[in-house]
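Recall the central idea of this unit: under ordinary conditions, the amino acid sequence of a chain determines the structure it adopts. In this exercise we apply that idea directly, starting from the sequence alone.
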Amino acid sequence: MVQQRSQQKQTLLGATGVAVLRAYLAFTLRTTRWTVSISPEAMPFLIGQDGKTALVAFWHEILPLSPALWWWAEPQNPRLRLSVLISRNRDGRMIADIVAPWRIWSIAGSSDNKGKSKGGASAFRRMRALLNRGQIVAITPDGPRGPRRVVQQGAVSLAGMTGLPVVPIGGSCSGIRVKTWDRMLLPLPFGKGHLVCGSPLTLVRHATGEAARLESALNEQMMQAEQNTQRSPAYQRTKGFLLPLDIMPSRLWYGLATLLAPVLPFLLRWRQKRGKELPTRVREKMGFASLRRPQGKLLWFHAASVGEVLSLLPLVENCLAHCPACCVLLTTGTVTAAALVKERVQQSVFAAKIGHQFLPFDVPRWGTRFLNHWRPDAVVFTESDLWPNLIGLCHKRAIPLALVNGRMSDHSFKAWQKIPKVAQRMLERFAWIAPRSDHDAAHFVQLSGGCSVGPVGDIKTLAQPLPVDWGQLAKVRDKIGERPVFLAASTHNGEEAELVEAVALLRRRHPTLLTVIVPRHPERGAGLLALFEYAPRRSCGQWPSAQDPVWVCDTLGELGLFYRLAQCAFIGNSLQTIQTSGGGHNPFEPARLKCPVATGPRIQNFSQAFEQLGAGIVKVNTAQQLAAWVSDMLSKPEKAEQQAECAYQKLEQQSELLETLTQKIVALLVA
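Accordingly, the structure predicted from this sequence is:
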């Protein structure tokens, strides 16, 4: 017990010491007026321009000044990551703890000598992996124990093996020299400081004199920094008050979410009573995990609702096929999406490698709890379901982020333009964004100030055909008999009244026609009975008689059945009479099942998808036009088949997108 208390006391003293030193270093570096002089040849490497990367080298004595250079570089390219090789001894770990909140990540290790392993081989592999991934790695060639200003062979070997250049850096500021082996420079507040970055060096492994070349370059930069030389035409000088990049994209959103946190459990209880949350899993919305984290690499995919889940699953499975050693965490926001994940994952050959959780609300404390448990190695968001606090928390931990099928409608674009700084800081956190269309890509580039964009393509084209219970399909066909079927899929409030008129027109021309109405939200099924003369409802187990013109199928997950049953289909949420914002639904689902499709004029949410399918989709504006199209499809089966085949062939042209996205996502796991 005494020993335990002693250890706790030492831990507390250590944490207090680190906090004090961090506060002092932050204060002195921020109050120092810095001049940053950079060789034009070094600039692209220091800011990661065009994916360039390099080793950054400086003497161990100016290690406390390194955050100032990072605070200058990171805002110019927030996708950059900096890792510094720091020894595994107690002093090295203390330095690592001090700089960690500024997203300067440490690689534990130093050169192995005298037959004693100091983690050099492991650190060497780690550095190579980070460099290959496009990150910057900083080394102190004379560390960890000197001799002072003497380059060790490990730095030359690393540069030679990677083939990457070394950028030599010198630094000086108002400060005091500590009586250590390297005479470490400790900055003083309200002084002046100079950082000088020289031209990159290409070092050849095992070549004679390479260590001396690097040594000379480092000493030259140190001399320039110490002497405070006048500006040279060969260098760029930047002055200003340096600060670390904000971790959270929006401090206002961060604070508001924190203040609302005590109220949100009551909101969850209210949602639970209305069937919008699962009682046994509602705590997942507060970041409490209900599953254990699997061993090894973990890819986290987030899909907001049913449509995103359907489009994302082929990408998830393909990533697992390319990376058998990793597992996947799939999060959703809705109960219906969770039910779909459960159903589909059970059918997958990768079922044992895919776990599902509900996404926690965007409360910093809840998000931290979620990340502490799951510790994902990479994160993939989809479409437009973006949460600033979660994105900021991932960035704080240097977890690489990607956005696939990025959607930015004109309405959302105008809204984000009102808070451009928040949008920019949020989008800058992504290593890359794969937008749904060229139109979306232009919006992302403009809001982010030039993020890495591509490839462009809609992953909904990758989804497998909607599943079907073949036994139920046979049963429905048996009940209906030879009657032709027209499907109105995913209809919304306001447009069913138009369908009433279309059904009446169609029954005059095709007396045996059965119209199947599938409302987007099944709970609206009862409200449709008055419109359609109290038609039978599938959710109540009712079947249409030979005289019933309409069958209301207010169930979930059965569109695969009805698209296979129908001779033609209309996609809802598209007529001018709808009472919701946006417009359109996924046209790829019927196209993949070779069902001829029509849509109304309001398709802005899926405009690119409809453009891709071209002549495979027919647009109608009124009930009369819809009735005329359905009649045409029923009367001319060859024409219906031709339209369906046209849409199907357009889909097949998108197959390359799956492999491209898979390779980019798996590459996030390299380091």
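Confidence is low (pLDDT under 50) at residues 229-240.
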